[in-house]
């Protein structure tokens, strides 16, 4: 979910004035022509963004709701997203140094509106947030090309696209020094407080990363350690830490391969982000993810995911397994057929195994043949099946629950249309 900026006083008013001009442009940004690349509005101003919108129905005529297994941190997203969402980012360069350094201010507005709600962005229908607002001083020669930054920002995030799952996400409000070159590797440090607006209590978090460690031909390793201090706002809080390692092999079958290994203790179970501040040292999390995307021919591309996560906690531990893939085949420059299949299993320490399988078929209009090309307009049919344990674990009135849209049934479907673009 998008984050909200809380510390606007970190910048003087004179530095914020370009941001006010940027935000006045954002409201009209969705009406601008869609493009596959950033829009260069001037030599010193750029506009980037992401947007998806659509509508759908469950079988039986009910408004669409999404299929996600209780206890699973992600879901397979093709034909399984239930919101209009956009992120509109403007970056303004306000100083250009002679040696290549530059000072910039970045602002991003996000707009969220759930399906089946009035098309507004307030109250129960949606929201408008400011997930990013920061300044950065880039390419500092005295720091071997490093960047100094301060504010709220998305910081060194890593995700799996087909599940929209950010498995390593140390974003937050704070400051840092990023990408100090030391030989062939880069060093970074970030201090942050609150990760996002939904975090009820904050804690100091220190993030150290060593990036682009060469391991083999075309292979790079990123290593990060995150320390979460004991929160002064939580009575029974403890400190925690996490370790994350990500190996990326590129090129790989015309795309790339990612292998992630992560471990966290106490509040470090967020694995880069801040986890539960009440978690003691006996609460631990292990995670392993293998993901690769490919473009074997100009027409045939896709992405696959295999993942495992183990949560150790007194009376509340569980294991999560996931496997899925999206295939994309282009019959012409403007028509693709996409399919996505995914399966999740969650086994609590003190309960039966929950399972959910989901299949989507999506005829797609596109601007190019490749898997990653956008914009896309998709018609979709999604089929899902789950077991009784998943139904019993689902929150009341949600999709899988016995008092939800499908009642006591253990299967269901949805149809709809969606447009997605980034630029």
Description:
With 423 residues, this protein is mainly beta. The protein has a single domain (8-422), classed as Beta Barrel (Maltoporin, Chain A), CATH 2.40.170. Helices cover 5% and strands 54% of the residues. The protein has helices at residues 13-26, 388-393; strands at residues 39-40, 45-58, 83-96, 102-114, 126-140, 146-153, 158-160, 165-168, 172-182, 185-192, 205-216, 219-228, 240-252, 255-265, 284-295, 300-312, 318-332, 335-348, 354-366, 376-386, 411-422. The strands form two sheets. It has an 18-stranded antiparallel beta barrel. A two-stranded antiparallel ribbon has the order 7-8. The radius of gyration is 22 Å and the shape is globular. The two termini are 20 Å apart. Residues 1-40 have low confidence and may be disordered.
Task: Give the total of domains.
Answer: 1
Task: Characterize the main sheet.
Answer: 18 strands, antiparallel, barrel
Number of strands: 21
What is the third-level CATH name, the topology?
Answer: Maltoporin, Chain A
Shape: globular
Please write the CATH class name: Mainly Beta
Work out the strand percent.
over 45%
Please name the fourth-level CATH homologous superfamily: Porin, LamB type
Fraction of helical residues: under 10%
Helices and strands: which structural class?
mainly beta
CATH architecture, by name, is Beta Barrel
Element-by-element helix/strand order: HEEEEEEEEEEEEEEEEEEEEHE
Distance between the termini: 20 Å
Can you tell me the residue ranges where pLDDT is under 50 for at least 5 consecutive residues? 1-40
Mean pLDDT level: 90
């Amino acid at each position: 979910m998008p984050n909200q900026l809380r510390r606007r006083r970190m910048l003087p008013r004179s530095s914020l004035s370009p941001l006010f001009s940027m935000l006045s442009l954002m409201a009209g940004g969705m009406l601008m022509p869609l493009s596959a690349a950033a829009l260069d509005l001037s030599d010193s101003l750029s506009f980037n963004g992401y947007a998806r919108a659509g509508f759908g129905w469950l079988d039986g005529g009910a408004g669409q709701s999404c299929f996600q297994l209780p206890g699973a941190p992600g879901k397979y997203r093709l034909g399984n997203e239930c919101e209009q969402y956009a992120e509109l980012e403007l970056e303004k360069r306000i100083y250009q140094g002679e040696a290549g350094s530059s000072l910039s201010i970045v602002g991003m507005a996000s707009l969220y509106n759930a399906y089946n709600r009035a098309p507004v962005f307030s109250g129960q229908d949606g929201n408008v947030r400011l997930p990013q607002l920061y300044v950065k001083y880039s390419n500092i020669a005295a720091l071997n090309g490093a960047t100094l930054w301060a504010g709220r920002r998305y910081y060194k995030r890593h995700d799996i696209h087909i599940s929209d799952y950010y498995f390593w996400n140390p974003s937050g409000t704070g400051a840092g020094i990023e990408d100090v070159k030391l030989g062939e590797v880069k060093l970074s440090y970030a201090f942050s407080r609150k990760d996002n607006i939904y975090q009820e209590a904050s804690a100091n978090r220190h993030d150290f990363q060593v990036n682009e460690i060469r391991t083999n031909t075309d292979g790079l390793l990123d290593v990060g350690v995150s320390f979460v201090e004991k929160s002064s706002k939580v009575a029974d809080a403890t400190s925690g830490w996490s370790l994350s390692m990500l190996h990326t092999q590129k090129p790989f079958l015309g795309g790339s391969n990612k292998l992630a290994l992560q471990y966290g203790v106490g509040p470090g179970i967020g694995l880069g982000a801040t986890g539960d501040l009440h978690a003691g040292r006996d609460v631990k999390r292990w995670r392993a993810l293998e993901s690769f995307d490919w473009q074997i021919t100009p027409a045939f591309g896709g992405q696959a995911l295999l993942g495992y996560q183990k949560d150790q906690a007194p009376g509340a531990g569980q294991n999560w397994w996931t496997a899925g893939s999206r295939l994309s085949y282009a019959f012409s420059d403007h028509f693709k057929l996409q399919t996505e299949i995914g399966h999740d299993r969650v086994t609590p320490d003190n309960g039966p195994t929950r399972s959910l399988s989901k299949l989507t078929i999506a005829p797609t209009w596109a601007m190019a043949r490749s898997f990653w090309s956008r914009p896309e307009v998709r018609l979709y049919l999604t089929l899902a099946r789950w077991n009784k344990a998943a139904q019993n674990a689902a929150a009341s009135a949600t999709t899988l629950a016995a008092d939800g849209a499908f009642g006591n049934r253990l299967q269901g479907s949805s149809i709809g249309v969606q447009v997605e673009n980034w630029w």
